[in-house]
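Q: Give me the 3D complex with 6-O-phosphono-beta-D-fructofuranose.
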Amino acid sequence: MFCFNNSQSKAWKKLQNLQKHFKKTEMSELFEKDKDRAKKYTLELSDLTLDYSKNRFDDEILKALFELARERNLEEKRDDMFNAKRINTTEHRAVLHTALRAPSDSKIMLDGQNVMKDITAVLAKMKKFSDDVRYGNFKGYTGKKLTDIVNIGIGGSDLGPKMICEALKKYQMKGMHCHFISNIDGTNAYEVLKDLNPETTLFIVASKTFTTIETLTNAKTCRKWLIDALGEHAVSKHFVALSTNKEKVSEFGIDPENMFEFWDFVGGRYSVWGAIGLIIAISVGYENFEKLLKGAHEMDEHFKTAPLEQNIPVIMALLGIWYNNFFDIHRYAVIPYDEYLQYLPSYLQQLDMESNGKSVDKDGHFVKYATGPVLFGGAGTNVQHSFFQLLHQGTEFVPVDFIVPAISHNEIGAHHEILLSNVLAQSEALMRGKTVSEAASELRKAGKSEDEVEFLKKYKSFTGNRPSNTLLFKKIDAYALGQLIALYEHKVFVQGAIWNINSFDQMGVELGKQLATNILPEIQGKSFSQSHDGSTLSLIKKVKSFRK
Ligand code: F6P
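A: Here is the predicted complex, encoded as structure tokens.
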């Protein structure tokens, strides 16, 4: 029997006590005491290295965190996911995004069927179609090669493809251009369409449900744009759909032949590994798409088989829990030092915050502990010149994940060496800090007067002892990217398992959608309702007065 009441959890209590004694311990002292600390707390998987030594823990804490994981039956829960148990309990669904990247000869049974049969068929269809588009065998209606691919989708049907197309830009086929329309704001569609030629444009309508208002509205706008230029008959040569919903796809006017399918056992934010990745396969070639799957699969195997003590996603998750639930730090930052990974933080925001931003546990109780943290981030070094001030001198620490490739895709001059020195310096600075007396002596050395030294020394000091992980890759190619994304997926899974929440639904996005449906006719002047609060009513009025 699981014990989800923390007051009855031995490991939880132990960790609470350990935190009381440990909260003042300086990481730099731990490094002083143990010369092997870095080595001891570094893990490797192929060309990926995780150094988690700059975190506020010792062996005893780590041991208690593993106890907590075992107390919460993490290993059984992990196996349940891989073994197609219906762990998405509110929607009664299995969670099998890992099957999308499993070798084709795997046997993954769901309801008496091996899901690999359908998965391999769709992947083969993707391979053929992406090759045909890339090499001009599938042409536009007027016989021209398709050179601009527009992915129309939102959330999981946008963020993954967009992030990965950018991350692998270096591998993009010459003359092939990717575009993304996600926002209902017409500006998004306008800005994308204004420079495109309908004859050479392919639209991919990506929507798991095929009911999402943003995607369907954008798709209708694009369809009209195409028909206005080339006529109704052009649609089948310029529109394909990625969905689980065949009926809605054909209702929309896309031939199911032009549809790439996925299934309800793949969550939207976990869907980039199958049909939703079509634009990636077109952009960088199916071979690279396959490498992405292989990298992710290696991480799946690692997650499935490595003991908890050497398990990269498990350790990252447990450290996150340590800060979130025992230090009361409910945020973390992900900072890729790689311009090509600039969209990674937004992608991870959906992955983490839509999965674990929950308040009711799997047994139907409101939880009495913190669950998913706020995630934010941006590409280094840019963010060093924006929010890093708070990371270094703010009143509370923010755990950071630094991600960096040792080799850049674009080795120009000394750029990459400067970038590398920056990422390493940031994690060192966060940990080491600078005492008030160190700041004072630096000021004196710089020739400042004693008055100035006195005045400035505190402003120039840094508390330090601020934790970070460093994920170092040799190079971030498709394989490495697959490892990286799967790592975060499993990290999120582990935390959800420990918090006993369902990481695979997203009911929190519904209320806003519902209310928007009520407000729309009011803004359109079709109906008027008094059933809003005073603020909403007066804002509706004001909006309407501006639009008169
Ligand atoms: O509103 C949230 C959400 O359901 C996400 O979970 C999902 O990724 C996104 O909307 C898009 O959904 P769909 O792919 O069904 O259009």
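A quick observation: The mean pLDDT is 97.
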